[in-house]
Amino acid sequence: MKPRTANLTSATLDEFHKNMGSGKPFGIIMKTVKGLGVSYMENQVGWHGKAPNDEEYEIAADAFDEWMDSQEFDESDIEE
Questions:
Q1: How many distinct helices (H) and strands (E) make up the chain?
Q2: Helix (H) or strand (E) holding 70
Q3: Which residue from 6, 33, 37, 56 has the fewest beta carbons nearer than 10 Å?
Q4: Would you state the pLDDT for residue 75?
């Protein structure tokens, strides 16, 4: 099953915005995958909070772009 990142993010932000200013506590708890789409970072806790060097960044950015291109999103979930 492919992750539904755009749908989940859109729905989560909608709920967040509905609750803003209500005075009620609100939290967002999400199950995420660290480094999703970047093979050498995915699920590697050592990358959490660590910045890649320039070469690692370029590799990660290209890998993430490829991963995003492979996902299927409903156009209504993606803001321009």
A1: 2, 0
A2: helix 54-70
A3: 33
A4: 59
Rounded-to-integer distance, Cα 9 and Cα 78, Å: 10
- Note whether 16 and 26 are within 8 A (CB): yes
Residue 38: other Cβ atoms inside 10 A: 20
Token representation of residue 23: 């005075």
Among candidate residues 34, 33, 37, the one with its CA nearest the CA of residue 62: 37
Q: Environment class of residue 41 by beta-carbon count within 10 Å: exposed (0-12), middle (13-18) or buried (19+)? A: buried
Q: Can you list the positions of beta strands (E) in the chain?
A: none
pLDDT digits (tens, 9 = 90+) for 22-37: 888 777 777 788 888 8
Is the dihedral angle over the CA atoms 27, 28, 31, 36 positive or is it negative?
negative
User: Rounded distance, CA 26 to CA 19, Å?
Assistant: 7
Q: Are 43 and 35 in contact (CB under 8 A)?
A: yes
Q: Which one-letter amino acid corresponds to residue 33?
A: V
